[in-house]
Amino acid sequence: MDKEEYWAKLAQEALRQGNHQIVEMCYQRIKNFDRLSFLYLATGNTEKLTKMLKIAELRGDAMSRFHNSIFLGNVEERVRLLREVGQTPLAYMTAKTHGMHEVADEILENAGLTPEDVADLPTHGTLLVPPRPLMRVHDSNWPQLAVSRSYFEGAFTGDMEGVAPQAPLVANEAEPQADQWGMDDEFSIPALDHKGASLAVNNDALDVDGDGGWDLDADLTAELHAETGAIVAEDGGLAIPVAGQSEAEIWCQNSPLAADHVAAGAFESAMQLLNRQVGAVNFEPLKDQFLSIFQASRAILTGNEGMLSITLPVRRNPGEVDQRKALPVLIKNFQALIANELQEAYKATTSNKLTEACTLFRSILHSLLLTIVTQASEAEEALQLVGVCREYLLGLSIELSRREGQNDTSPAGVKRMLELAAYFTGAQLQPKHMIISLRTAMTACYKHRNLQSAQTFARRLLELAPPGQAATLARQIQQVAERNPRDEIQLDYDQYNAFVVCGISYTPIYRGSPSVQCPYCRAHFKPEFQGNLCTICDISQIGGSGTGMVSMA
């Protein structure tokens, strides 16, 4: 382990954490004198910087001597060094600029020159020395608090064990200790405990002291502080003002909606809400939406140069004076989601861009989790839209799977291709898209002499009143099939027995057979896939529990 590269990595990590004492030790071990000098300069350790100057002189390192003399503001050493290395003009100008006239005259005399020979040199030089350190920060490291790794960090970095449990998640409680300011082991990070969750409107996910973020006594504490302050004021003592709540804390307390918690910056509590409502365990697809909602809920006002910008929270009810009703601005609009994203997804399906359509429908599912509606009718439409996206994603995924295997001409491959074409017709799509799926299945079955199945699909196609050419083809296939209504290949497809299609295996689950569902999109899966991530919404855990999507307070 005693290798230079390991000491360098240790120094880099210690520097990132503000542990400059470890950094100093590492630089000393690998003899990185340049970085060591700069470290002493940054921490104001002039005593050790002076030692570095002497070490550089013993090592015969002229450049290091020059740097250290600049860091120390030691002009005499700088002039002496420049004379030693033969930089006589620089030595003279340095001495002359800094008022060392006797040394400057001595340099001129040794060079055989007179002041008149250098009269044209600039005379407006300014003193350039480093400022004197006001604080001895090198005596202690930068203070740190031991913190637990949050569920937010684990979810977005993908560093979770499998998928999250069905139970909601909160962080461990951690009692603040006085020795955590630089006294604890700085490399220990408490493990995250996935237990418990809250839908309470007073939940502050970033507060891990006391009640673990439930703020059970927040109002009582404020009242006690006010009463205590009044008593002290009556006694003639100093009344300490009670700290107020930030706008973000008010938003979290006033709303049970995940989108409002995201706007407040309480990502962890937002994920807890989604986990409880729809069994969400994979938040990576929501990362960009989390960040965009958070940024859009604030206005930034730039100040004068050198001053911090002013952040102004934006409310959706700016005229409301009661803080208990204050809420962040609405970022996502449900009607715009239907008018824009949904229509784009329909258009991609019509244009046979199935992969693009799947991406759009899945994006709508993700957006619905963070879309707030203001009317009960819109809340019902949002639930219906989840079903629409589920049906399209399942149907298009089945069709993509069929296309991937259509080059397999073996009997098993042909049988599977025909089954997938039949399952595609079971997806509840818009009529114009149902026509496409039925034509696909009808044509495939007819080509492989499954005339009975082709006749069934032709009859269903005619019930939808397709365009002229499609209707003519369907009638012709019906006439041919009526003369010989039999299938050459027996399919695992029973049109008279209601079924749903498994979202992973793409096989039928007939009525009465056991199945598990995604708690968000309600897609069906076979029991052996319980605990896996839903392949339709890519958000929730198959077989997980959830109270249901909440889009209106």
TrEMBL record:
<dbReference type="GO" id="GO:0016192">
    <property type="term" value="P:vesicle-mediated transport"/>
</dbReference>
<dbReference type="Pfam" id="PF23953">
    <property type="entry name" value="TPR_COPA_B"/>
</dbReference>
<keyword id="KW-0653">Protein transport</keyword>
<dbReference type="GO" id="GO:0006886">
    <property type="term" value="P:intracellular protein transport"/>
</dbReference>
<keyword id="KW-0677">Repeat</keyword>
<keyword id="KW-0813">Transport</keyword>
<dbReference type="GO" id="GO:0005198">
    <property type="term" value="F:structural molecule activity"/>
</dbReference>
<keyword id="KW-0472">Membrane</keyword>
<feature type="domain" description="Coatomer alpha subunit C-terminal">
    <location>
        <begin position="150"/>
        <end position="550"/>
    </location>
</feature>
<keyword id="KW-0931">ER-Golgi transport</keyword>
<dbReference type="Pfam" id="PF06957">
    <property type="entry name" value="COPI_C"/>
</dbReference>
<dbReference type="InterPro" id="IPR056176">
    <property type="entry name" value="TPR_COPA_B"/>
</dbReference>
<keyword id="KW-0853">WD repeat</keyword>
<dbReference type="GO" id="GO:0000139">
    <property type="term" value="C:Golgi membrane"/>
</dbReference>
<protein>
    <recommendedName>
        <fullName>Coatomer subunit alpha</fullName>
    </recommendedName>
</protein>
<feature type="domain" description="COPA/B TPR">
    <location>
        <begin position="2"/>
        <end position="104"/>
    </location>
</feature>
<dbReference type="GO" id="GO:0030126">
    <property type="term" value="C:COPI vesicle coat"/>
</dbReference>
<keyword id="KW-0333">Golgi apparatus</keyword>
<dbReference type="InterPro" id="IPR010714">
    <property type="entry name" value="Coatomer_asu_C"/>
</dbReference>
<keyword id="KW-0963">Cytoplasm</keyword>
